[in-house]
Amino acid sequence: MHLLLVDGSGYIFRAFHALPQLSRKSDGLPVGCVQGFCNMLWKLMEDLKGEDEPTHMAVIFDHSAKTFRDDIYDQYKAQRPPAPEELVPQFPLVRHATRAFNIACIEQEGWEADDIIATYACQAKSAGGKVTIVSSDKDLMQLVEPDGSIRMLDTIPRPGQPPLRWIGADEVFAKFGVTPDKVIEVQALCGDSVDNVPGVPGIGVKTAADLINQYGTIENLLDHVDDIKQNARREKLRENAELARISKQLVTLAQDVPVELELSALQRQPVEPGKLFPFLKAMEFATITKRLAGLIGADPDAWEPDPALAAQPASPVGFDNAARAEARAARQQAQGRDALPVVVHAREQHEKVRAIPWNPDTYEVLEDARSLQRWIEVIYRSGIVATDTETTGLDNQTADLVGISFSVGPGTGAYLPLGHHAGDGDIFGGGGKAEGQMDLGEALDLLRPVFADRSILKIFHNSKYDLGLLRRYGVEVNSIDDTLLLSYSLDGPQFNTMAELADHWLGVPGQSIKELLGTGKSQKTFAEVDIASAARYACEDADMTFRLWRILKPRLAAENMTTLYETIERPLAPVLARMEGRGISVDRQILARLSGDFAQRAAAFEAEAHELAGRKFNLGSPKQLGEILFDEMKLEGGTRTKTGAWSTGADVLEDLAQKGVPLARAVVEWRQLTKLMGTYTDALPTYINAHTGRVHTTYSQHSVLTGRLSSNDPNLQNIPVRTEDGRKIRTAFVAAPGKTLISADYSQIELRVLAHIADIQALKDAFEEGLDIHAMTASEMFGVPVEGMPSEVRRRAKAINFGIIYGISAFGLANQLGIERSVAGDYIKTYFERFPGIKDYMDNQRRRVKQDGYVMTIFGRKINFPNANSSHAAERSFVERASINAPIQGSAADIIRRAMIRMEPELEREGIEADMLLQVHDELIFEVPEGTEEAAMPVIKRVMEGAAEPAVRLTVPIQVDAHAAKDWDGAH
DNA sequence: GCAAGGACGTA
DNA sequence: GTACGTCCTTGCA
Q: Which part of the chain is the 5'-3' exonuclease domain (predicted)?
């Protein structure tokens, strides 16, 4: 008999750390260890032939309950960190794999795998058999027999070493300096920090081996402890005699486990293709499948992937995405199928994290270099740290760093105060630096390597803010996760703030910064908060961030959002941080001149309006204007807003002006001019940063339902362009001296995306041939040749094309074109007849949103519509239109996000110096050295045009137009 | 001091 | 008809 015992649990942990590349299957589930495990199994079957061929075989796992060792020593394995996130879902899968290979899969409550292995090995040896233990765990080395009847085999792949490495008595001696039967004595003396076996302090492996070789056993050693010459060693042994005895009990493997399966039941069974291939296919292990099919001479195509394990493309019905995954898991269980391990894992994580208590008393304040260094060591050991910067303001371009908090796990926290002011918060008192704070420069020097280290994962909430801030302090950050972007990838802009996330996921009230800082006149900055309160607030933030990460990260795999997050959202944040940091140059003089001009002209219109109205009134008040027009002047055709006030929108006034009401014209003109002043010529200069002399917008990556960015403080995505006066504002956006601006914009990106998604051949052909798409549409619809087409005809077709993208309705189109609703309805009907695919697309989205509660972009971004089945008809119609628009707008947004992520490395690769400054939905603005425009533009175009590839192969050409000039108006 | 509503700038 | 952010007035605290 030859018994092969595989240490399954040991394999998983060691393989995880030995195999850096983590393969994932298509739903994002990490399966690297499962893959390694399967590879090992079939290689063992292949390599152990002839005299080494096992007749009996089993894979042994730890059971996750307590063992007898916990009763002996309550600290046993207490230092073990929780299993890595990526590893947890793989535990059940490795057991699945074992059964798929038709091998006995053994675990037993109350016993470690090692004890079960020892028991079977002992039984087999007594029966005169040979035993091979597949493991590299030194704890098992005590079982090795010098006569070769029990050997170990190390199969963990290691570079530069043979795939199978036998461990016999010689190898054990090399490791412990004693024969295998003395291994437990040595282990008991020197202890094991990993398992938290205490041992005798001050005694390492070498000393232990010397002592055991001299005295044979621990008991004999302790009996003769007086003979030991070295004073310190003798005393240590005396003092810790009991610890040594306990340690020996801990390291000694039980050989009498009441195993449930007899040895004979472990007899090897032939591989059954019906068990094997459904598993391998569900894991998407194509290579292993092929190899094994060849080895056992079976056709894998005869089997389908195991549905309980296979990746699933979409989530089920519902509103909340997590609830959807839950519902799917429940249904699968009701059908007698196991829930997907990733789903189970995500749910368990959530429950586990919610159960962890809060204890702010354990948070630490790092007052000096020593305590910071100690925490840095903690961070290195953990490999993962949630971190948060506290500053004096919401704008990371101007705010000062006040402190940094860290958490290495739920319930842990440390705060490093750096810029707190002395005094009681009174701006006249103190003003100096508060006591108990490290020097900022010294602290950052210590932290720089931590932030830069790629092997340490830094978890932020809104990483863009911290990245931009830290960059100003010369701190580079690598390897990040971002709970805000995790939440956005999973649930959209539903939850934005830490407080909302904490409330929803952790069931605790999120902290309010307002309580700490106050509001209004008496508001202080974070620098004025006392360090103790600041520490509590900051640590709680980092702690919450860590907890949220533990809950949200596993949901990525469970809900198929890993790719979106890892290839789009996470990499984009640092790109945006850099764009915000660069800012753009704005010419004060130009704006000042414009402002003066606009003010004069506005004043004239205001005087004229007062004259025409017969009295003075506030032109800025729609209420007063409405009363004058419709109550006092009794003009016809006034409509009311939903709150009952008179409508005085531009379209209404334009209408009145057409009908000969000069007051309406004057107000329209006044509004335009004052709008330009208030929002642009007067407001923009206040945003010029005193240090950089440039305007730095803040992008929001997580606010828009469809996946677009938004821009605020100031909004640089709504700088005027449509009117002549408006365009003048763009001339104030200028290149720095010696530089040139380049504007590159996607041409008709949304219509092209529509043509692709809805698969409209006529549209695709038109784009392929580079036709005027609106003229082509008009020609198709109205039968008018493109040559010599009246501009009004083209204008209508253009409005219809836009209408389609917006989820057209006869009402809206009629409004837009100023035509009868019935005529608009006829246009739409004609359009659908000409392009029947569009109708199908729209019906599909409507159906999907009602059924699933969401629609998707071509890159897998989900857009949620909780009200899809609202009882309110208007709301339902709104959702229908939005669900038609969202995949179009969102796919275009995904494309430009991908372009932005790739742009900087591509430019660098091509040796082109170009700074990406702004994004305006379908346009990117760059600043390049004068004279390099011609070199930069083709590269920029190429990256933008190819941005969908290779993830999505678009069936329409994408076209980007680029222009260079000294100012934005000229470049556009 | 703040929230809501109306109006209007962009894609 | 889609998606945003900002300014101003109004009304209430």
A: 1-269
